[in-house]
Prior knowledge:
This protein is of the alpha+beta class. The chain has ten helices and 26 strands. Helices cover 22% and strands 32% of the residues. The longest helix is centred in the C-terminal third of the chain and has 20 residues, at 435-454.
Amino acid sequence: MAKLAQSLYFEPEEGTGVECKNMVRPDPFFMRSADMWQTARNNDEEIFLYAAYYDHRPLEGISNLIRITSVATQLYTGVFCHIWFPSFKNPLIVRAIVTKSGRHSTVMGTTYYEYFFTCNAQHQLSPLPSEVSVVIGSKCEIATNALDVRYPSRQQRLDFGICVSILYGFVNPLSFIDWLEFHKILGVKEITFYVCNFDYRVYRVLKHYQEEGFVKFTRIAAPVYESHHTACSRDAKTYRFLQSITRQDCLYQNMYRYKYLINVDVDEVIVPRQHMTYFGMMSARDIQRNPNIHQYLFKNAFFWLDANEVPQHPLFLHHRLRTQNILEAQYGLNMYKAILNPTRCIIMRAHGCAVPTRNSYTQYVDTFLALKHHYRVCEDLSTDLDVLNSTEVCKTLTRNLTNDLTTLRFKDQLVKEITKRYYDIFLPLSDSETSSTTVAVAAAANAITTTTTTTTTTTTTTTTPKPNPPRNEHPKT
């Protein structure tokens, strides 16, 4: 990992483009594209290009680099960047550093990988690049693509923002509202989503919060798929193409907008156990405020939705049975999630920053302070996590569950907010559209009443571990 991080700083080869003939900016009419993706091809090698970002962090030793996110077949030959500047006819030509940044998937017999290209845009006259093209094989190849170089937003800085890598398939709209409102209470100021396909009721929820300025969302589709029905299919696993792509997009676009970037999915919440907000938690004396920390990692606990608990809503108040063994290490389920400093991360993956900047390190947060609550159906582990024999694994994981009452501290505020949202969002719909939704809203309201009148008499207690000194991990050299 240390060698990988080192390689993402420097670019060994460059040229002016003068030595190549007929070097002209690609004509949009002749550019190859697949929906929102641009393409580059060379024999059996094919790259689908999503976006390019300018990365200039002199305090972190990073200067004038362009990062490009892509999906591609296995690459065997060289990849080159043609970097275009507004005032120059010829491009700056550099060899790209090629890094596999995520998981792979096979579609119609071809295996595709998520790639992250790094190109050195340092020019002797130091202008800012406007576009970048990618070619395969020969550096003088005529480009069939040209990505606009995106520059990170420097809008008003927010203390806490969330990146959700990909929203696809069925998402319960009421649980979705629960999740959004819970994060509002915890102090999150903005959530960025990438959406593949979803129920129209989820779209209605997204639009409602977008109009408030709390949510941003971008539509995205896989560049290759067997049919439109499998473009975002969990079974086909084509959604995997999009996970690393969207994480890097959110990281680089919000690098200076979010002071702390929280990397969670819509079935996860990092829940403070001693404080009512993330600001209070991150101000605790057990949390180090060393500028060299690139991420704070939080341990995972599963809260099983198939543990025979009723009713379901509000999700975080009713589902309180969690695994006693927080790590579940014997099954490879050490699913930490991170609150990270985006300015000290180069590549972000599912559970945190995979490639940090130099001289950065991680703090592991003690479960006395916070725990990541992961709400899911145990049997889904076989699909999403490639856990073999999930039925047998789940028999073990669902034994001897602990009743965790931590979220009840947020009960009054959460009930008030989600009750209002349920009706604001769904009641204005016509009767023909909302027969099922109206019933669900009524059930949720009844669940809220039940929660507020009965949970205070619960006698089951939660065992809270005593605090240990924070454990830090320095990067290996």
